[in-house]
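[audit] Reproducing an earlier prediction to check determinism. Same input, same settings, fresh worker. If the tokens differ from the archived copy the diff job will pick it up downstream; this log only records the rerun itself.
[audit] input (192 residues):
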Amino acid sequence: MTMHTELWFPTVIWSSVVHSIDNNSLKKYAYERQKADKGRKISNYLGWQSNDILAGECPAIDMMVGNLNKEIEELRIPVGLPSLQIQNIWININPVGAYNQLHNHMGSVLSGVYYVEARDNAGNIQFDRGDNADYHLPMNPEKSTYFSVTRATYKAKTSALYIFPSWLKHSVQANQSGVDRISISFNYGEKT
């Protein structure tokens, strides 16, 4: 007997290294914004997170959003999503020891992060399974596979872009690089 395999409820994480973004301008703007914006606390511990950045406030971010809009349009079609639009975008500056607690992005469909500055040991992003498989899977599987793992880790590195479903719980490890980890996070939702 041959069993037919079907994948239901797969979790997709898209990744890329982007070379067309001006990281120097973004880094300069991040520190200027930090001086002028008290910021907010959501999932960040010891780090700073800006309030939402509006269109027209930073040409480098506007250009980045233009590129993201094209990527999101290409990603949404194969997975059957309707047209999406950016809901919000913000900056994160995480000094040594700063991290982001486990969270998801309520009210949006796709979320992502772009690393403006991330050196070795800057703290990787980790995605956790949300289906309680850890209560059912063997403690010591014969080998780790996409089916059997309960966490996926992606390296924080300069110019890396990760896009993922907004409901996927994720955290970011503590920065131990000796240099600020600077990232830009964003959410996309259904067009209104």
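[audit] rerun output stored. Observation attached for the diff report: DSSP finds two helices and eleven strands in the chain.
[audit] end
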